[in-house]
């Protein structure tokens, strides 16, 4: 999804991801080209903002940005490409979906995806580059909403609260119920839970 506000030249996109560390759900990425004539106040690393503040800022970003886009890589792609590869894929999709072509992209972190424009990686860029902060907010809000939807299907894992991260509650639920299709089977806690349940099934059959 995306939106264009105005046409401009010399555009710079901020790009960030959400959801590299969780045990379940897709990894999301967003790209944002801010409008200097319509600044968004209060931008910061999405992890430092309260959920209601993030949600409110996401609406302002979508309204005022020159262009924005949100994309994701699903669990199958995470298992196929590993989490880094899937994250870079989601970033590629987000930049490609922008309705304006950026002159340059600023990427949070230390790795850049292959893009049709020059790109620069900035460690902790979500704390110092407003466009990256805006992208981090859109990616985080979009992913959290998907995890709330997954919670309605699988309430036993507590996704509404833990957003798929390996909290004690989530790990206990993995042991009790096993992984679901939304779990990343290439991540060690999920792999171990699968292995233990396989041993249990074999012991029952023997």
3D structure, described in words:
This protein has 206 residues and is an alpha/beta fold. The protein has helices at residues 51-64, 75-97, 125-128, 130-153, 159-162, 168-177, 188-205, and strands spanning 2-4, 12-18, 27-33, 67-73, 104-108, 119-122. It has two domains: 2-152, 2-Layer Sandwich (Nucleotidyltransferase, domain 5), CATH 3.30.420.10; 165-205. It contains seven helices and six strands. A six-stranded mixed beta sheet has the order 1-4-3-2-5-6. A hairpin with an 8-residue loop joins strand 2 and strand 3. Helix 1 crosses helix 4 (130-153). The longest helix is centred in the C-terminal third of the chain and has 24 residues, at 130-153. The chain is globular and about 55 Å long. Residues 1-9 and 199-206 have low confidence and may be disordered.
């Amino acid at each position: 999804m995306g939106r264009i506000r105005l046409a401009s030249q010399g555009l710079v996109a901020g790009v960030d991801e959400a959801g590299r560390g969780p045990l379940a759900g897709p990894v999301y990425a967003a790209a944002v080209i801010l409008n200097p004539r319509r600044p968004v106040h209060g931008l910061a690393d999405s992890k430092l903002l309260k959920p209601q503040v993030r949600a409110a800022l996401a609406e302002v970003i979508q309204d005022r940005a020159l262009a924005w886009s949100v994309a994701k890589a699903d669990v199958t792609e995470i298992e196929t490409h590993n989490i880094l590869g899937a994250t870079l894929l989601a970033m590629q999709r987000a930049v490609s979906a922008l309705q304006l072509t950026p002159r340059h992209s600023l990427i949070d972190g230390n790795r850049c995806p292959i893009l049709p424009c020059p790109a620069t990686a900035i460690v902790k860029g979500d704390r110092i580059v407003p466009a990256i902060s805006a992208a981090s907010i859109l990616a985080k809000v979009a992913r959290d909403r998907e995890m709330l939807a997954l919670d309605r299907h699988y309430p036993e894992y507590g996704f509404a609260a833990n957003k798929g991260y390996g909290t004690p509650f989530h790990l206990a639920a993995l042991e009790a119920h096993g992984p679901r299709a939304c779990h990343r089977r290439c991540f060690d806690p999920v792999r171990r839970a699968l292995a233990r349940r396989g041993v249990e099934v074999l012991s029952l059959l023997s």
